[in-house]
Specification:
It contains 17 helices and eleven strands. It is α+β, with helices and mostly antiparallel strands. The structure holds cobalamin and iron/sulfur cluster (SF4) (2 copies). The site of one iron/sulfur cluster has 13 residues, from α7 and α9. It holds the Pfam family QueG_DUF1730.
């Protein structure tokens, strides 16, 4: 059967096959510019809220137009897949908390493989070659805006796309196709009078409904940020070692609707799981060891120095005395000044290791790191001679 010139039949087929491929949500929108999303993006960029994420500084005309990704595009098929792996157990062991989306395998790879198979399956069913590009996350397109227009959900005040039936713990993926498909109605729903996410965000990053200032967001600070976690924000990071889920955890939609992902690749057992052992991570000294431990999971994103930086901050916040020997090792011999500086901060927070800090101050050549060591010494016991 030739459905390539039957927008209604082709849409029905795609919905059916996408669900059979394991996607929880499917919808279609025309490959037209995302005007409202683009306008919001422009204001967000102008306010500096994109921080130093180079990929988010690209022109609005590119990020808000699916045709820029594929000239012949006529429709965008938005797909949603729940990654919800369950709730964090209590952090009794003093671990580094990992956001739920990152407990399992790297979703980019997992979803890409399924999209590829879905596309093959569609071509077979349609009996024709189609031009289709599949993406998730690593794509210059406002995926939430496209998905909202394709009917996958509504924008929560935390800026996440929320589906009335499964909440917001889902990834968005896209299949951009050159087929004419009957579009869905945009997603609807409302937060009502709830403002929990805005009230509970640990760093006050949600500046207005749907507007997240990445410079303050723990997810940015612990994943995309390549530099220091600003000192004044470190305390608010709490025990988050990778990402943050607070604005989703408090959301009533997730409390009542979140159901565990059907994809085994997103389960805690298949990857890093809900917590990182702080000392184990702080012992990793080379990129090779780091890859061996985290390859194939989302945790490679901040790089070795970034993840160790985060674990230092968690150790300081939890006042993790058993991590003191390994923090001292980081301070004296980690090759990255980012790690040495955050290790100094953690030791200062725990209020120990004055000798190690003094020794490090004498040997340290990096100016920023030296500032951290001095601050730790002053913070630890108010030694003004070193401040
Ligand atoms: C950059 C980025 C980040 C940045 C900035 C986040 C942000 N809110 O802007 C950081 C690193 C902080 C981040 C964090 C997270 N991210 Co992120 N991120 C992205 C990325 C690459 C671009 C987002 C973007 O365009 N931001 C710019 C701002 C202006 O857009 P926006 O926040 O998405 O908001 C849009 C809509 O919500 C809409 N909107 C918002 N409110 C309202 C209200 C009205 C009335 C209207 C009309 C429109 C509207 O307008 C905006 C423009 O389209 C997307 C993937 C992609 N290519 O889209 C993933 C993406 C948004 N991230 C995702 C995830 C899972 C997360 C985290 C949950 C990870 C974690 N646990 O740590 C957190 C959530 C934090 C949060 N509250 O947003 C998912 C979200 C899925 C979903 N159900 O919403 C995405 C879609 C990736 C994917 N393919 O699955 N992320
Ligand atoms: S992810 Fe965390 S820090 Fe970022 S906006 Fe949500 S609650 Fe705030
Ligand atoms: S916590 Fe409340 S305000 Fe925030 S996204 Fe959920 S329903 Fe909306």
């Amino acid at each position: 059967m030739d459905l390539t010139s039957d927008p209604v039949g082709a849409r029905r087929l795609i919905l059916e096959r996408a669900r059979a491929a394991g996607f929880d949500l499917v919808g279609v929108t025309r490959a037209e510019p995302l005007r409202e999303g683009g306008e919001r993006l422009r204001r967000w960029q102008e306010a500096g809220m994109a921080a130093d994420m180079g990929f988010m500084h690209r022109p609005v005309e590119l990020l808000a137009n699916p045709k820029k990704l594929q000239k012949s595009a006529r429709s965008v098929v938005s797909l949603g897949v729940s990654y919800y792996p369950g709730e964090h157990p209590e952090n009794d062991e003093g671990g580094g908390r990992v956001a739920r989306y990152a407990w399992g395998r790297d979703y980019h790879e997992v979803i890409k493989a399924r999209l590829f198979r879905l596309r093959e399956n569609l071509e077979e069913a349609l009996g024709a070659k189609i031009k289709a590009r599949g993406f998730t996350d690593a794509v210059p397109l406002l995926e939430r805006s496209a998905a909202q227009r394709a009917g996958l959900g509504f924008f929560g005040r935390n800026s996440c796309l929320i589906d009335g039936d499964i909440g917001s713990y889902f990834f968005i993926a896209d299949l951009i196709v050159d087929l004419e498909l009957e579009p869905d109605e945009p997603g609807t729903g409302t937060c009502g009078r709830c403002t929990r996410c805005m009230d509970r965000c640990p760093t006050g990053a949600i500046k207005a409904p749907g507007v997240v200032d990445a410079r303050l967001c723990i997810s940015y600070l612990t994943i995309e940020n390549r530099g220091e976690i600003p000192r004044e924000l470190r305390g608010s990071v709490g025990d988050w070692a990778f990402g943050c889920d607070v604005c989703q955890e408090v959301c009533p939609y997730n409390k009542t609707k979140a159901t565990e992902s059907r994809w085994p690749e997103f389960s805690a057992q298949s990857g890093a799981g809900p917590y990182l052992g702080i000392e184990g991570v702080l012992r990793i000294r080379t990129d090779g060891e780091f890859e061996a431990r985290f390859a194939g999971t989302p945790l490679t994103r901040p790089g070795r120095a970034g993840l160790l930086r985060n674990c230092c901050v968690v150790a300081g916040n939890l006042k993790l005395e058993r991590a003191v020997p390994v923090l001292e090792d980081c301070l004296s011999s980690d090759p990255s000044s980012l790690v040495r500086g955050h290790a100094a901060w953690a030791l200062g927070e725990i209020g120990v290791s004055r000798d190690a800090l003094r020794g490090a101050a004498e040997a340290e050549a990096d100016g920023w790191c030296l500032g951290e060591i001095r601050h730790a010494l002053v913070g630890a016991a108010g030694d003004p001679s070193l401040g």
